[in-house]
Design brief:
With 341 residues, this protein is an alpha/beta fold.
């Protein structure tokens, strides 16, 4: 889950120490254009304080007013629909034709005793990099937790709401340098569980990014140990061919969603020539995003991290038929990525 939704759950946990009524609001359906996707969450308190987002501001205002007026239930869930008519769509400033349905779930007063600790359990599992499936019965408020798969998504059938919490994407960064540090911190905010591999003890000694897994094995062994799948991203950032190429030899043969390497166009051309000497097919080598990231004129470590994540966002969000266009934008970039990472 991204950092916005994680902050919603953490806020609810903090607010549970008080006596004001609390609600967790979750987007369950969207029709037409909508500002936030299904699964987006909002923490709401009886005095009108709110954290998170379900629409970008308009629907939040309405929910805050309902909370302050005591118009939200404390003993049952309620399903609300916004934007059904043209008048409502205009009132809530939703995009043309947009409709949003949300589940409003009470979190404080009459919730069954056996369910009161689900929030703490979910946060502990997420911190342990675990994926957890949460199933809510809207009639009884009964909550069940279970392990979730990376491809599972939110589901709602008017009686049961199932949400998935935790990092559904994984990122393996080769190299524990400065660029890696910026990339790791930003990636955590975008739903990635981050692993960092660097066999160099002096580089590992200065790594200070919390909630990441630091690996000391050789890069090719790290790729194999991770058992990369189509929800895995592998980025080589050491700027040392001996280390980066080791990772790429295994990463390009894996089903990893994205494989990228730092360096200029010229250096990546040489890298492809080196890779062709090993047991990689032309199709496997063509999967390499090098120079890594989108062409935004990046030079500094944080700028390079932004360009990488911007490319990943575009690849994850664009339909499959536009992937080739994104790829061509990436590999045509004239930027110089000769930044020590």
């Amino acid at each position: 889950m991204d950092s916005v939704d994680l902050s919603v759950l953490k806020t609810l946990r903090e607010w549970q120490a008080g006596k004001l009524p609390l609600w967790l609001v979750t987007v369950v359906d969207t029709f037409g254009s909508s500002p936030r996707p299904p699964g987006a969450m909002l923490a709401l308190r009886g005095d009108g304080l709110a954290v998170g987002s379900v629409s970008g501001g308009c629907i939040e205002d309405d929910l805050v007013q309902r909370a302050q007026r005591g118009q939200l239930p404390n003993d049952r869930c309620e399903v609300l629909t916004f934007g059904v008519t043209k008048e409502e769509a205009k009132r809530f400033r939703l995009p043309c034709g947009g409709v949003i349905r949300v589940v409003v779930e009470p979190m404080q007063s009459r919730e069954p005793i056996q369910n009161r600790d689900w929030l703490e359990q979910v946060l502990q599992l997420v911190q342990a990099h675990r994926l957890v499936r949460r199933t809510l019965n809207l009639n009884s408020l009964q909550v069940e937790l279970d392990n979730a798969g990376r491809n599972e998504t939110i589901s709602f059938d008017d009686a049961t709401l199932t949400t998935v919490h935790g990092p559904r994407w994984r990122m393996l960064i080769i190299g524990a340098g400065q660029t890696s540090s910026y990339l790791a911190r930003m990636a955590q905010a975008l739903d990635y569980e981050v692993f960092v591999c660097d066999p160099r003890a002096e580089m590992r000694a200065t790594w200070d990014v919390p909630y990441t897994t630091l690996m000391s094995e050789m890069p090719d062994d790290a790729v194999l140990a991770l058992q990369a799948d189509n929800s895995t991203v592998i980025i080589a950032l050491t700027h040392d061919p001996k280390l980066d190429d080791m990772a790429l030899l295994e990463a390009l043969k894996s089903p990893a969603f994205y494989v990228g390497a730092l360096g200029s166009l010229a250096n990546n051309a040489k890298r492809r020539e080196r890779l062709s000497l090993f047991d990689l097919t032309d199709q496997e080598i063509a999967r390499l995003h090098g120079p890594v990231g989108l062409d935004i004129g990046s030079r500094t470590p944080p700028e390079i991290a932004v360009s990488i994540l911007a490319h990943l966002i575009s690849m994850r969000n664009r339909p499959a038929e536009s992937a080739d266009a994104v790829q061509s934008v990436s590999q045509s970039q004239p930027i110089n990525q000769e930044v020590c990472s």
